[in-house]
Write a structure and sequence with these properties.
83% of the residues lie in helices and 0% in strands. The protein has helices at 10-55, 60-94, 100-108. By secondary structure, it is mainly alpha-helical. It has a domain at 24-92. The radius of gyration is 25 Å and the shape is rod-shaped.
């Protein structure tokens, strides 16, 4: 019995799934790192401005909170990057090595 013409072959389907998974991981990393860039700085700008208006210290508390937010942003990005590096390394270590039968099949093709 012949297979249906619209059904993808197993190799093609797994390649698409793998590509989709990699794309989603990249997008997730982009948004997480972007949030580390934008979040602390925006909060510091508003909070620093509010403190300066409250205590009449313009622009010193504004500059101080911005500097603290920049330091927090740097540490957050470094920590997030290191965690992703560890995750990638652990996934690479989990990949099974090709068996001799698979290597022979690939060489015959």
């Amino acid at each position: 019995m012949a297979s249906a013409p619209n059904q993808p072959k197993n190799g093609i389907a797994s390649d698409k799934a793998k590509s989709n998974e990699e794309w989603q991981r990249g997008l997730k990393l982009f948004f997480e790192l972007s949030s580390w860039l934008v979040g602390p700085l925006v909060l510091a700008l508003f909070f620093g401005n509010w403190l300066d208006q409250k205590y009449q210290t313009k622009p010193w508390l504004f500059l101080f909170t911005t500097a603290v937010a920049f330091i927090i942003t740097c540490f957050g990005i470094v920590l997030k990057t290191l965690s992703y590096i560890k995750e990638i390394e652990s996934q690479e270590n989990k990949k099974p090595e090709k068996t001799k039968n698979e290597e022979v099949k690939n060489n015959e093709s």
